[in-house]
Amino acid sequence: MKGYLSVQQTAEKWGVSVRWVNQYILDGGIPGCERFGRVWAVPENAVKPKRLTPGVKTKRSSSAQGITRKLAE
Description:
This protein is an alpha+beta fold. It has three helices and three strands; from the N terminus they run E-H-H-E-E-H. It has helices at residues 7-14, 18-26, 62-72; strands at residues 4-6, 34-36, 39-43. The longest helix has 11 residues, at 62-72.
């Protein structure tokens, strides 16, 4: 997909695990992410968000909350 990177490519670019990238997406930390079927696409120009603190709940964006609800169904 032109203009987007996979979660794996983003993880390699930022030097973090795939799990962290997925968590950033679900917490609304990466604006502009798109979901195509079961695969997330991250914009090429996305900036790595500040690292989440383990055990600290963050306020999710409304779009991330809707996605989380859909995944739970």
